[in-house]
Amino acid sequence: MNLDLGTPIALGRTAEIYAWQPGWVVKLYFNWFSRENIEYEARIGRALHFAGLSTPAVGEMIEINNRTGLIYERIPGQTIWQALSARPELGPSLARRMAELHTAMHASQLNVDLPSQHTRLENKIQQASALPTELRDRLLASLAQLPSEDRLCHGDFHPENILTGPLGERVIDWIDATRGSPLADLARTSIILLGAAETQPGGPQLRGFLHTFHAAYLRAYFRLNPGGQQSYQRWLPVIAGARLSENIFELEKWLLAQARLIN
């Protein structure tokens, strides 16, 4: 169908979000994003919602203006990033809340069929064309030595993927969810936040704020989950190397530097 959806209410790397019927939004994907991936996101989203996790309900897939869309429950409120932008003084409390949500996710007992985190990371490192062969081999060897666990991991947990409002929080964008190590998932969040500090406009003040927020989040996570700092440090270069497969060209030099910190 052809519709005038108006102005997007949110914009991501893979899709635009538009208001839909009352209580719902449509996530309209760019044409380069495969239908197979959209179907996977719908299946995972429904399974996690029905299992009782704090995620939006998922509706039907739909074709609009020659693009594929997915209907989602509309959650009143804003992202944690929007809340931080409006009121930076909330940084410490939102960092703690984000750590609490991440901890609860990693502790949840859900019978949901998800891919292996190790396999996904191995594939990403293999696909990262910016990695020199010697560094790729070292990262793969390090990954093979890191624990392969069976905990629920989001794979893209950061302030723009957490909605907060009068109904509480909802975590969105579960397409990268896996079964694996919580500390690898934690390291992924660190690489996202620290990488954002490298590329966000706004100068030293904003970069300093992001580093402070990240440090507060990390302290809160390890206060809730004592130990594991050494394993977390080992995960960081592996996660940085895997993120190079995502072709975020403005971050390539920084990610390579982080990957080269491997022991």
Rg, Cα atoms, Å: 18 Å
What is the element string, with H for helices and E for strands? EEEHEEEHHHHEEEEHHHH
Uncertain ranges: none
Q: Which structural class is indicated by helix and strand composition?
A: alpha+beta
Fourth-tier CATH superfamily name of the largest domain = Aminoglycoside phosphotransferase (APH), C-terminal lobe
Q: What strand line-up does the widest sheet have? A: 1-2-3-5-4
Helix content: 40-55%
What is the rounded distance between the termini?
A: 54 Å
Biggest pleated-sheet summary: 5 strands, antiparallel
Shape by Cα distribution: globular
Counting H and I runs of at least 4 residues, what is the number of helices? 9
Q: How much β-strand is present in the residues?
A: 15-25%
CATH class of the largest domain: Alpha Beta
Overall number of structural domains: 2
Annotated CATH architecture of the largest domain? Alpha-Beta Complex
Mean pLDDT, nearest integer? 93
What is the structure about, briefly put?
The protein is an alpha+beta fold and 263 residues long. The protein is built from nine helices and ten strands. Helix 3 (91-107) crosses helix 7 and helix 5 (133-145) runs antiparallel to helix 8.
